[in-house]
Amino acid sequence: MDSYESLETAVEPMKRRDLLLASAGIAGASAAPPSPPRISATIRRLNLRHTWTTVMSSSEYRDTFFLTYSRDGVTGTGEGAPINRYKEDAKSAQAAIESIRPWLIASDPWHFTKVMAAVFQKIQGEYAGKAALDIALLDWAGQKLGVPLYRYFGLDPADAPVTTFSIGIDTPEKTREKVREAEPFPVLKIKVGLNTDEATIDAVRSVTKKPLRVDANEGFKSKEEAVEKINWLEKQGVEFIEQPLPASGLQDMNWIRKRVHMPIIADESCLHPDDIPRIAPYFDGVNIKIDKCGGLLEGWRMIQIAKALGLKTMLGCMVSSSCAITAAAHLSPLVDYADLDGNLLIANDPYDGVKVVKGKLVLPNRPGLGIRQNKAQG
Ligand code: MG
């Protein structure tokens, strides 16, 4: 009894003090007269280490959209990588956010879920712009609450998966060089879908025996070609393939799946939460991208819907900085597969955030996103 009492007296004052501090911090944030937030909406050019070629395009750089939201001494930072295929670019993302600036300034950032729902009503398309705003608001809230975003979502960072490292389409010689550079990554993702696929895979296999995943980016011309290529890829040690046919080719997917063993993951066929029930009968899994769906809140919903429908889940990315990649990585403990390497493909990353150690994503244990300015990039 004595020991119990002394423990009580020792613990109680601390509890009371912590409670007072905690309630002062949180209540203070919402009860103090709100200072108007500062919002910056900027475009940054990210230079690629190698020319990046897929079925869709070839480029030396990407322009992504950055948004910072500063209020009460805390700045949240978000980024979205616009996808040309959906008629978005960094300028249109910026214009979309500018169009709601006065409303955003008057909105309460603690109501971030309500705010984002309203943004989806106010802005058509422009998912990269929405993603940048969603990430900035969650980063701000996470910092104010003093918790990393994975903790806000109730996730265990130890569950974060291995990420693949992506190899864009290139000459066999360049492909071998890229595969050698990717030595620390236990699984590679190889872009295919052109008539160079055989030479590409041969070049990869001449350097490594690692498991491979491939992404055709809608590049196969027919269901027959898809079956032939997928069965050949299976013999090359490929675990699964993303999007063999164009997004519009849903009806051919069942025909293909009856003739191959390899799991097939939807990417371009599945952009938003309401696409998942429609495509679920035709695929084994979905590649969810924060830039594609418009933020972490939508990404979370997509993961939950996909899981409920028995689909495998994957978090993918666009070419972007450690801001957007770290944001997606905070949800990665939820998914089966991660392809979160877009920051590793660029030469001038403005931020430092999630790390990759022996291929595994290691989340920063700092409040919010946990990113820091990369001093080397100014
Ligand atoms: Mg893909």
Per CATH, the class of the largest domain reads Alpha Beta
Q: Proportion of β residues? A: 15-25%
Number of helices: 14
Low-pLDDT residue spans: 1-29
How does this model look, in words?
- It is a single chain.
- This protein has 378 residues and is of the alpha/beta class.
- It has 2 domains: 38-147, 2-Layer Sandwich (Enolase-like, domain 1), CATH 3.30.390.10; 151-377, Enolase-like C-terminal domain (TIM Barrel), CATH 3.20.20.
- The protein is 39% helix and 21% strand.
- It contains 14 helices and 15 strands.
- The chain has helices at residues 2-31, 90-99, 101-106, 112-122, 127-145, 149-152, 172-181, 197-205, 223-235, 253-257, 276-279, 290-293, 296-308, 322-331; strands spanning 38-53, 58-71, 74-80, 165-167, 188-191, 212-215, 238-242, 264-266, 285-289, 312-316, 337-338, 351-352, 355-357, 360-362, 372-373.
- It has an 8-stranded parallel sheet with strand order 4-5-6-7-8-9-10-11. A 3-stranded antiparallel sheet has the order 1-2-3. It has a two-stranded antiparallel ribbon with strand order 12-15.
- A hairpin with a 2-residue loop joins strand 13 (355-357) and strand 14 (360-362).
- Helix 2 (90-99) crosses helix 5 (127-145) and helix 4 (112-122) runs antiparallel to helix 5 (127-145).
- The radius of gyration is 22 Å and the shape is globular.
Give the helices and strands, then pairings.
Blueprint lengths: L1 H30 L6 E16 L4 E14 L2 E7 L9 H10 L1 H6 L5 H11 L4 H19 L3 H4 L12 E3 L4 H10 L6 E4 L5 H9 L6 E4 L7 H13 L2 E5 L10 H5 L6 E3 L9 H4 L5 E5 H4 L2 H13 L3 E5 L5 H10 L5 E2 L12 E2 L2 E3 L2 E3 L9 E2 L5
Parallel strand pairs: 4-5, 5-6, 6-7, 7-8, 8-9, 9-10, 10-11
Antiparallel strand pairs: 1-2, 2-3, 12-15, 13-14
Helix pairs in contact: 2-5, 4-5, 7-8
This protein binds magnesium ion (MG).
